[in-house]
Amino acid sequence: MTNGLRMLPAALLAIAATGSAQPPPQKFDSNRAWEHLRRLVAVGPRPAGSPAIAQSRTYIKAELAASGVPVVEQAWDDQTPIGNVHLVNLVATIPGSSKDRIVVSGHYDTKLFREFRFVGADDGGSSAAFLIELARVLKSSRNPLTMELLFLDGEEARLPEWNGNDNTYGSRHYVEVAKRDGSLAGLKAMVLVDMIADRNLRIKRDANSTRWLTDIIWDTARRLHLDAYFAPAMTPIEDDHMPFLAAGVPSVDIIDLEYEAWHTPQDTLDAVSARSLQVVGDVVVAALPEIQKRLASQAR
């Protein structure tokens, strides 16, 4: 008598062994990310504390809920050079086999300009749209570590120039809270995305970022034949990763600072590209398992 299990296709054998079929991991879809970006830009200028950024939060939370990813608000009031501002970080969590976590973050506020209309397609829009789509992708895969998608408020300076503590309000607050409640110990690495949709994408290595994390990102780009977009040149960058680095968290900043429309009225959908979102999405999705392997080897 023939053993029936031997007659089953390999996929059905896996189902028989586990009791359920595991869906294949999703791929990053720049068309979905572009639609999120389009919807966010349509809201208009979204500076911290504005009704428009509250509208953006409503959209982000609804899209995360549609992907089955729970999100909580981390709200507080902060003093800025132009007065008190209400800020809100959004923390979306995808549980892994371990409670230790990797944070992938980006800001969703736009810089406050009174002299012109600034919709921040790349600067504020691209990172938020990227994280919404990344949540959908990571939700479909099994991750050894918990994945946390962190939408940061208040990255932009309230005054025209970036000086002192008039910047990175959301990242500084997140790190301070994590120190107080003890959750910082479980934060093993942080990947920051900022301004990643430039039509002429060229991302330099950040001299302030953790070397091994930077190497994994750039090596992954090379492996995927996307290294034309990830330049070997190095430059020091101050961004939302700095409070994490100061707290001892390995961190890397993925940012294109050569964006010609940066902080101008021309930072619109015409200046950005779904292809650039796809490039960064493919690299980050492929790099995250390598980051987890590195962290596992360090733990041993």
What is this structure's SSE topology?
Layout: H1 10-18, H2 30-43, H3 51-66, E1 71-80, E2 83-94, E3 98-107, H4 121-139, E4 145-152, H5 169-181, E5 187-194, E6 203-206, H6 211-223, E7 230-235, H7 242-246, E8 251-255, H8 274-299
Parallel strand pairs: 3-4, 3-5, 5-8, 6-7
Antiparallel strand pairs: 1-2, 2-4
Helix pairs in contact: 2-4, 2-8, 6-8
Q: How would you sum up this structure, described in words?
A:
- With 300 residues, this protein is α/β, with parallel strands linked by helices.
- It has a single domain, classed as Aminopeptidase, CATH 3.40.630.10.
- The protein has 8 helices and 8 strands.
- A 6-stranded mixed sheet has the order 1-2-4-3-5-8, sandwiched between helices. Strands 6-7 form a two-stranded parallel sheet.
- α2 crosses α4.
- The longest helix has 26 residues.
Give the count of structural domains: 1
The chain-level mean pLDDT equals 92
In CATH terms, the superfamily is: Zn peptidases
Total helical segments: 8
| Topology pattern, helix = H, strand = E | HHHEEEHEHEEHEHEH
Q: How far from one another are the termini? A: 48 Å
Provide the low-confidence segments as ranges: 1-21
CATH architecture: 3-Layer(aba) Sandwich
Shape: globular
Describe the strand arrangement of the main beta sheet, using strand numbers: 1-2-4-3-5-8
CATH class: Alpha Beta
**Estimated radius of gyration:** 20 Å
- Derived structural class: alpha/beta
- Percent helix among the residues? 25-40%
CATH topology: Aminopeptidase
Give the beta-strand count.
8
Strand content: 15-25%
Sheet of most strands: 6 strands, mixed
